Amino acid sequence: MADLTWHPARSHAGRDHRSLRVGTSAVVMAAVLLAVLLVPPLVPMDAQAVDLAAKLQAPSLAHPFGTDEVGRDLLLRCVYGLRVSLLVGVVAALTATVIGTAVGALAGAFGGWADRAVMRVVDVFSSVPHLLLGIFIVAMFRPGVWPVIISVGLTHWLSTARIVRAEVLSLRGRPFVDAAVSGGASRWRVAVRHLLPGVLPRAGLAAVLMVPHAIWHESALSFLGLGLPAHEASLGIMVNSARGSLLAGDWWPTLFPGLFIIVPTLAVAGLAGAWRERLDPRRRSELML
Question: DSSP of the chain, one letter per residue?
């Protein structure tokens, strides 16, 4: 028989673990934001400056992260690359969330044939891998930040649309919606005034959860040579360029850009997981990335 006894120590341990996770994530994100805001103006170095005499130097006081294959300072280039990744992640996530929220809210609010048609479109787009569709979109433009943002935004709204639609369908049965309909409110008024405010917390959570995914997507496109121009400081480009150095035994050109991709995304996911637990405590820290 299952033990249904409440264990205070276990409950406190769980809260302590979540508090530690949230605190660590917050500290990491604060350090990331300070780095991307303060390092470029305070460090009088050019991230693109080539110094072949200093190429592939190991980490030292002069270059804490070492230098790359053409002598550029890796710390400064990682910070600039992280700035690009955060820009792409935040703007693309907001774009995808706006599209997904609008589509999901309209499908759930109107129902009937409109709901079925919209969800069939969502199913068709979902059948194509995100990265493959993103490559197709970004290949139509010249390399740059905005093509990557457009690519990520147009391929990541599907999950938000499903979440918002499900939330709208659950809200449609609430008494305040029935009262608004009985009072003669149109479908548009019900959707905008009563249903949309109810789904905004979920939509905001979806946007935050999408930021790490967008960062990884941008890094993957840049790694494949389809994101930013090759001379720009991009974390994906840096990892790609460092493959030869890694085979030669020089680990730092690969390690530090990789950490700048992994650590901030885990911090964002940790904060988003805490937000999700507040919205739905029964579904702990399951992340929809």
Answer: -------HHHHHHHHHHHHHHHHHHHHHHHHHHHHHHHHHHHS---TT---GGGTTPPS-SSSTT-B-TTS-BHHHHHHHHHHHHHHHHHHHHHHHHHHHHHHHHHHHHH-HHHHHHHHHHHHHHHTS-HHHHHHHHHTTS-SSHHHHHHHHHHHS-HHHHHHHHHHHHHHTTSHHHHHHHHTT--HHHHIIIIIHHHHHHHHHHHHHHHHHHHHHHHHHHHHTT-SS-TTS--HHHHHHHTHHHHHTT--HHHHHHHHHHHHHHHHHHHHHHHHHHHH-GGGTT----
